[in-house]
């Protein structure tokens, strides 16, 4: 009996020692999704479930010895502008197996390029701090931390906590320029974003301790960070002003706690690097600020069940000077339904990229009406001049402060110290008849992710003029909602805003207006200057990776993954020939070739043991190679069934009833056991043969196996089956002859035994 249990433990041990999934060897390996949002457990393969031809990341992962190395982390396997580390939540390449990744949200696929996401939508654009050097700062620069003081995070899904700071309490006693911000994250699993605001006056309610009550009293944003983002560094000689005369700041932290975690005390915040304005090295610095272009939550209603519901809002900024302002970074914001967000620059027809007119210049003096589009406003006795009546014009008049209701007055020069009559008319193009053209995208993200927001540098800085309009679009997917989604601050509400960092700072640069709803189909291709589109083959040295295929025509056996090779060989040997022959011996040769001393049983057990060991090895190789636990094809499901049936046989053998001896009749249990044991064995062989051919078909479909390989495997299995069938026919025939011979011999012996008795009686 002991040898039987030893035999059973030998069979079952490999299943316990099955190799660990590759998912654990890369950061967030169990959290990868495709560009369309489909879970992709088989990260290194073209099939989401794993197995099959490897994708570009799978090739690089194999070349790295199936280990997460710094070199693999820094590679861009799919050539979409993102390193493998950025896509898998380890942008700094510091993760080690068994550790928690730096980020566990916003995870994308390192082996499948997201063509939309690379069209200028993320920081394939340069890292704003990549060239920042503290050594180039004045020696009296300072680092100031604005942190939430030991705030107990509520278990609710959405919490906005606010806390006020005074410059003196932070050691800031003189005017300064903020030039860099870094996040200080203590509980990244619940901190969604942080915004530091400057206040015009002392805030109330947030000074002594953090508070979740009341609305934000401050509107001037200084610096921000959102989940997935890094630090932000401003361009050279540009900074955000921190003024002693306006010393109050409020930091707002959005806590997103979908798991309802409790007992979390948070001290997250922002570290600001600043330079005193008194330093001679900052004399030429330009103050920067934030431009807002977005929609008011009031009146925003997104109906349920919409896959691509688009809204838009249009903003103008007449306070921008004639020379324009320079935009150098952007941050786009929506909530969980947001799928695409972009802000277009619309410029009047006939105005070039420098903000000057290509149509005509306005005359220096009033005269008869020579230009149909040029209707200047001149101050004359308290009203604006009438171009239709030259006598009412003031040839050397000054620019109007405001257009007044008089005939022919449709526009005014912006008010300046001098009239500057050859300038263009700032308000002329605000008339309903004005024609605008979409010039470019100031910010664009066509694969927007609520969990991957950050301020991003523009590849090419853009100048915005007072005649420009910024049009922000947001596209939402509400198919999972059953009710209307309103606009609001909560995570389950929605927003639509574009934030833009620019210089020099100007007043009245925040525009929040009522949105226009259901304005388009949601289709968008980003048009951001300086950002190459994905289909430019210069982005990748390996051109085969750009089409996402990576599958050559006719893959040979030697080109396949080693685990797949092991799986094929083990399954062909075990279920193709060894186990079937092991079943054939007691069926066909028990009474003939292997009759003496029950040799058939020894050969049967040896073949079944080797076959089962190979079967277990093949199954382990399949799991290891696919990195998947699901079964999506008939081959997988049938293979699992065969695996269970095959493993049940040694268990069945250990539990077999007593074998009859010395002419003893078999018991009912023994007969039932024999029927079950033989039935399972025969069924397993038949199902295994069917599954081998299904597997060969799958090799051709999934792995693009060459015709030669498919033919070779099909021929080999056909030979195996032929050998078993032929052996069965021969064995059964031999058994029949042996049985007939034995019957004849028994008859002769019986006759010989009767004959002497008859002779004796005659005598």
Textual characterization of the structure:
The chain is an alpha+beta fold and 763 residues long. Among the domains are: 97 residues, no CATH class; 140 residues, Copper type II, ascorbate-dependent monooxygenase, N-terminal domain (Jelly Rolls), CATH 2.60.120.310; 175 residues, Four Helix Bundle (Hemerythrin (Met), subunit A). It contains 9 helices and 26 strands. The strands form 7 sheets. Strands 1, 4, 7, 8, 11 and 12 form a 6-stranded mixed sheet that branches. Strand 18 and strand 19 form a beta hairpin. The relative contact order is 0.12.
- Fold-level CATH name of the domain at 555-658 and 667-737: Four Helix Bundle (Hemerythrin (Met), subunit A)
Low-pLDDT sequence parts: 1-20, 116-126, 357-433, 533-539, 541-553
Can you summarize the main beta sheet? Answer: 6 strands, mixed
- The CATH architecture of the domain at 555-658 and 667-737 would be Up-down Bundle
Tell me, what is the CATH class of the domain at 555-658 and 667-737? Mainly Alpha
Helix vs. strand class: alpha+beta
Which descriptor suits the 3D outline? elongated
Helical content stands at 25-40%
Strand content: 15-25%
Mean pLDDT: 76
Rg (C-alpha, Å) = 39 Å
Number of helices: 9
Number of E-type strands: 26
Distance between the termini: 58 Å
Question: Quaternary state, please?
Answer: single chain
Transmembrane segments: 562-585, 606-626, 638-655, 675-699, 719-738
Pfam families: Cu2_monoox_C, Cu2_monooxygen, Cytochrom_B561, Temptin_C
Domain Cytochrome b561: 528-735
Subcellular location: Membrane
